[in-house]
Write a structure and sequence with these properties.
heterodimer; A: 9 helices; 69% helix; 0% strand; globular; B: mainly alpha; 3 helices; rod-shaped
């Protein structure tokens, strides 16, 4: 099969205004799709998320093979180790303390996975891989899955740390006098349910908003192309400059949102493992 | 007689006289516009909040420049949280627009 021909047959309407800018941030099928992938449910964003997972594994495994064999870490090993030290010193130890070192791999996995998937959305030519956006985390299903796994992780680790389910359940609510309890219990339950939802929506909305802004600004070049000859060129040049600046901001937002997700997971983990009395 | 519905119907018929082609889902379009206003209202609070964060963090960096690393980290982290609140409102207004936009 001629790969080039098939790729360019399914060329997504990147520079056309389409119906709305939201076409460029929604999900679609892959270009080189033999048909059964779409029926399996593998869309472009799902594929990007799986690619992010493969890159995360590669990120750690590439150093993990060599960690026992060389006395001094190489440049790449330095990067991986400094990332792990950053998470241990800035995130886990201030909240959980020394024995929270065993949770560093979990938090680092969340951080690196979300960082890589966010950054894959900014690679320019990946758009040709399919229709729609190439940000894996720009979809509430994927960020919801990440938040759900964080939820299960910190509650599960809290239950394991505190022994039994009943002890953990009692420690979920602050120890207040009995007559305040009917007010505290529903509020705490709602808070515990809302927190992972907030994690999911924060990440999803940040990624979606950034890419929608870029799609809207780039759509100006299309909208103004009829009848605005010279001014249209000026508008197009301005919008491309604005999109360049926005892409730098998106880079910052991608890193910050990954950090915020990992940070909040650490805070919730600390609350589950060490409840305040 | 239902006064608000009567008033609204008379306004709509006035608009229909002024412009012959009324969009078939005028109320949905108005609702979508109000959703946009709601998203803008959420951004007012966020602008005030992040402005206060920035002002107090810049002031404390000016007071104690050797703590600027910690202060900068705290500033960026807390700004990300408050930005998240604005984006919750944006998601809600997107739901309002999409849910009632062209379908149902």
């Amino acid at each position: 099969m001629n790969l080039t021909a098939s790729v360019f047959q399914g060329i997504p309407p990147l520079v056309l205004g389409a119906a709305s800018p939201l076409v460029h941030v929604s999900d679609g099928r892959l270009t080189i799709d033999p048909g059964f992938l779409w029926q399996l449910g593998i869309t472009k964003q799902t594929f990007m998320f799986m690619l992010g997972g493969a890159l995360t594994l590669l990120f750690f495994w590439s150093y993990a093979r060599r960690v026992g064999k060389e006395p001094v870490p190489s440049r790449w090993g330095n990067l991986v180790e400094s990332l792990l030290e950053f998470i241990r010193d800035q995130m886990t130890r201030p909240f959980i303390g020394e024995h929270g070192d065993r949770y560093v791999p979990l938090i680092t996995t969340f951080f690196v996975y979300i960082l890589i998937t966010n950054l894959l959305g900014l690679v320019p030519l990946f758009d040709y891989l399919g229709h729609g956006s190439n940000t894996g985390t720009g979809q509430l299903a994927i960020t919801g899955a990440l938040a759900l796994s964080a939820f299960v992780s910190y509650h599960g680790l809290g239950i394991k740390e505190q022994g039994s389910l009943w002890t953990y359940f009692k420690n979920l609510f602050p120890h207040v006098p009995l007559f305040v309890l009917p007010i505290i219990v529903p509020v705490e339950i709602i808070a515990h349910i809302v927190r992972p939802c907030a994690l999911a929506i924060r990440l999803f909305a940040n990624m979606l908003a950034g890419h929608t802004m870029i799609a809207v600004l780039l759509g100006f070049t299309v909208v103004f192309k009829e009848g605005f000859e010279i001014a249209g060129f000026a508008i197009a040049a301005t919008s491309v400059l604005a999109v360049t600046a926005l892409t730098f901001l998106e880079l910052l937002v991608a890193v910050i949102q990954a950090f915020v997700f990992a940070f909040l997971t650490t805070v919730f983990l600390a609350g589950a493992v060490h409840p305040e009395h | 007689m239902n006064i608000p519905v009567e008033t609204l119907n008379s306004v709509v018929s006035l608009l229909a006289q002024a412009e012959p082609a009324l969009p078939p889902n005028l109320y949905k379009a108005i609702g979508a516009g109000i959703a946009g206003i709601g998203a803008g209202l959420a951004c007012i609070g966020v602008g005030i909040g992040i402005g206060r964060i920035a002002s107090s963090s810049v002031e404390s960096i000016a007071r104690q420049p050797e703590a600027s690393g910690d202060i900068r980290g705290a500033m960026i982290l807390t700004s990300a949280f408050i930005e998240g609140v604005c984006l919750f409102a944006v998601v809600v207004s997107l739901l309002a627009v999409m849910g009632f936009g062209t379908s149902g």
